[in-house]
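Quick one: co-fold with nicotinamide-adenine-dinucleotide.
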Amino acid sequence: MKNIAVIGAGTMGNGIAHTFAQSGFKVQLIDISQQALDKGLATITKNLDRMVSKEKITEADKAETLSNITCTTDIKEGVEYAGLVVEAATENTELKLKIFKQLDEVCAEGTILATNTSSISITQIAAVTNRPEMVIGMHFMNPVPIMKLVEIIRGYNTTDEVTQTIMDLSKQLNKIPVEVNDYPGFVANRILMPMINESIETLYNGVAGVSEIDTVMKLGMAHPMGPLQLADFIGLDVCLSILEVMYNGFKNPKYAPCPLLVNMVRAGKLGVKSGEGFYDYSESRKAEKVAKQFA
Ligand SMILES: NC(=O)c1ccc[n+]([C@@H]2O[C@H](COP(=O)([O-])OP(=O)(O)OC[C@H]3O[C@@H](n4cnc5c(N)ncnc54)[C@H](O)[C@@H]3O)[C@@H](O)[C@H]2O)c1
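Sure, here it is.
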């Protein structure tokens, strides 16, 4: 399998395209927005430049990686030769169901369809296709070129063969794949989101302040970043939506989003991307400095 198509050129899509291209795969990067494609390619170039300046790759590696990527807004054209499509479009159930229906129609019979969804059921997505046994979750972590883990999620009908192909492919990307089953939150978010929610609840109950909570978890538990700061990086709206999926999926009050989280999202305080969450990122230099710390 040498040809990969990636749907969505946003935060995750451009990182996934970068990672495949750097490992020698030919990548078609597809987005409905030309602006998103331009921005995605600029991000990939900037990230490769950083790797060159850190002497992790050479100028020739950078040029080869970029030559492996082609951008298009035409989904049909983009997936024509793909052995695997990795969908990383906006996290919205209706949108993903629509994309997978279309992918099933336009992709070749043997093409494996993967989704990078953080929380939507793989089995539900697979059910709108005529190839549910060939639909799988490939949950990369942000930032994709750096983070080692890929959570591989088997839908109810995903075959052993397809799972093995995707596990092997992830290893070719120099990643560590971990196989899990398709239940709300999978493994990563099922464990991470209750911790983030409990941190917000701790703040809401007035037990301690933002930096105190983060410092306890950083210095006491050796976490590289406090949970409230991590929530700011993930996006508070994204945290809320994943908690809602788990709350509705398990019908268990332990996943109920903290009222403070709900209020902050309603008030547009979404974290780094909106300039303010638990921390203030309003001065662009300050946000950049914080982001660099974790790059
Ligand atoms: N951001 C994270 O930290 C993170 C981590 C793991 C998984 N994810 C998952 O990855 C996926 C993408 O998230 P993101 O943060 O990159 O989002 P994003 O908003 O940065 O990018 C989404 C992109 O999808 C494009 N898009 C929307 N509809 C499309 C369509 N019909 N066809 C093609 N492109 C379309 C948009 O134009 C945009 O460029 C989501 O499912 C999300 O849950 C995100």
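If it helps, The chain is about 50% helix and 15% strand.
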